[in-house]
Amino acid sequence: MVTFPLPPGSTIGILGGGQLGRMLALAAARLGFDVVILTPQPDAPASRVAVRTIVAEYDDILALAALAEMAQVITFEFENVPADTLRELARLGAAVAPNARALAIAQDRVEEKTFLNGAGIPTVPFAAVDSLADLQAALRRLGAPLLLKTRRGGYDGKGQARVQRPDEAEPALAAIGHHPAIAEAPADYRREVAVIAARGRDGEIALYPLTESHHENGILRRTSAPAKASPRVAGEAERIAATLLAALDYVGVIGVEMFERDDGRVLVNEFAPRVHNTGHWTLDGCEVDQFEQHIRAIAGWPLGPAHALAHVEMTNLLGDEINRWSRLVNEAETRLWLYGKREARPGRKMGHVNRLRRLD
Fold first, then answer.
1. Residue 129: which residues within 8 A CB-CB, separation 6 or more?
2. Helix, strand or coil for residue 116?
3. CA nearest 126: which of 250, 303, 308, 270?
4. What does each C-alpha distance from 126 to 111, 118, 137, 197, 236 come to in angstroms?
5. Along the chain (360 residues), what's the average pLDDT of each consecutive run of 10 residues?
6. Alpha helix (H) ranges present in 126-203?
């Protein structure tokens, strides 16, 4: 049985070897923890900053048993890890955070929005779509246009199709491979915003300032934080994040993406049960960034302060934009974060920059 808080020298397990795992491992090392990565990918970015890597699939029972034996607490860096993996680790006696329930809900867009509405958190109107008849019924009930998304998987704009007119229903289903889907009504929003929040093992909550998000081709391009917002909007976004953390009995950092409407209402688009791209600004804009906050939370440490020390604009570096590194490191107010990926492909997140200025 693991006793919290974990002392320095303990081992933290991370499922996934990408850039989020890399930054989590760096934060854990700074606090005196060792990190073991489990990933199917050899030479993953996180592996090169961890004490040990287990190269195996997420359903490899022997690999999971080895991880459970080594690590005092286990977390994950992205939501495509099977929820059954977390359940198996718990069965093996491992402490896992966030919990499998939160991950399972986030992995199914219909279950996610159903859960949010059940917790009193508003979303756009939606309908489950398993057939052409379901999509036609959704068009009659919700109207057009609709955004069709696969229920599971898909990210950065993948697995999506727009239905502008009823006669586009069948081509839209074909475009997403006839997978089970969700149909969403338009949000009619003025901008996209997000909140990074954390909850500790004792129920303590830390809320980072509201962030404004800008997407291009379904990929987050840049964020600006703290976002200028009315007290009503900021307060509602924070209330939503705190409500969600409690409803999920959550431990760790969560990213909550939202729409701010012209009427001042805030609707949740989706949540990510992990550290999040919209929180990268905290690496240079806050005393305790989202990665350290997550390690603190899952290790049972007190949460750190989440207020902003500077205004930050974060810009993702996609594909060969990483080649600008030599110019970027010469910008006095720019902080460069590179992810150690070996191959730059179009649209692939290779790093990001944080540009700082004083708070207004």
1. 135, 138, 148, 173, 180, 181, 182, 183
2. helix
3. 270
4. 11, 14, 11, 26, 22
5. 96 98 98 98 97 98 98 96 98 98 98 98 98 96 95 78 94 95 94 98 98 94 97 96 98 98 94 98 98 98 98 98 97 97 96 94
6. 132-142, 169-175
